[in-house]
Design brief:
By secondary structure, the protein is an alpha+beta fold. The chain has one domain. 21% of the residues lie in helices and 25% in strands. The chain contains three helices and eight strands; from the N terminus they run αααββββββββ. The protein has helices at residues 2-21, 25-42, 50-53, and strands spanning 69-73, 82-87, 91-102, 108-114, 121-125, 137-141, 150-153, 158-164. The strands form two sheets. The protein has a five-stranded antiparallel sheet, with no helix packed on it. Strands 1-8-7 form a three-stranded antiparallel sheet, with no helix packed on it. A hairpin with a 6-residue loop joins strand 4 and strand 5 (121-125). Helix 1 (2-21) runs antiparallel to helix 2 (25-42). It starts with a helix and ends in a 39-residue tail after the last strand.
């Protein structure tokens, strides 16, 4: 199974590389959706349970809406905070808050850094849309390939992130309760509904 997970992550990295390179985010989104459906349907590391996989017909998504795509500066002037998430396979996984992004009138989301080996940006989101997974979705999880891009200025130490909520996706625990997934903490909860991204699975 370890090699299967490795291959899954390679394929996810490839999907997001295509997204970052594409000139049209809506076209990139279609490619991303098709790639995820292929992985969920046929890959041995799919989080779908076997009985669900047999009748799987694709993940449900809202139509792409450019109004929910943002390229935003990471505000690093935030109080330090730490999340320690217990998991069944990886022990306690630590996340440190490194900043915050403002998404127009939608509100703000905290930006977290995975504090264990390798590190990476983690940006979960929970919103008021009843058609989305109640525990929240992931927008960025760069250690696992979910990286939509951004910039970094080495002189000032400042950077931006592409936060496109159309690419918000359900964590693995939304499909298989055997997975232990970090869910959205209070600083990653939007009070409004976000009609973008993956919806509650109908599989």
């Amino acid at each position: 199974m370890s090699l299967a997970v490795l291959d899954w992550r390679r394929r996810v990295h490839d999907l997001y590389e295509h997204v970052r390179a594409a000139g049209d985010p809506a076209v990139a989104h279609e490619h991303w959706r098709a790639g995820r459906d292929e992985l969920f349907a046929a890959h041995p590391a799919s989080p779908l349970l076997p009985d669900v996989r047999a009748s799987f017909a694709g993940l449900p998504y809202a139509a792409y809406d450019a109004a929910y795509r943002f390229e935003v500066t990471v505000d690093s002037d935030v109080e330090s905070a730490r999340l320690e998430v217990p998991t069944g396979t990886d022990g306690v996984v630590p996340f440190d808050r490194i900043g915050r992004v403002t998404l127009g009138d939608l509100g703000t989301l905290d930006v977290w850094w995975l504090g264990s080996y390798g590190g990476g940006i983690f940006l979960p989101m929970r919103d008021a849309n009843p058609s989305t997974y109640g525990g929240g979705r992931y927008v960025l999880d760069t250690v696992k390939g979910a990286d939509l891009g951004g910039t970094f200025d080495p002189t000032s130490g400042t950077g931006t992130l592409v936060v496109d909520l159309n690419f918000a996706y359900n964590p693995s625990c939304a499909y298989d309760p055997a997975w232990a997934c970090p869910l959205a903490p209070p600083g990653n909860v939007l009070q409004t509904a976000v009609p973008a991204g993956e919806l509650v699975s109908s599989t």
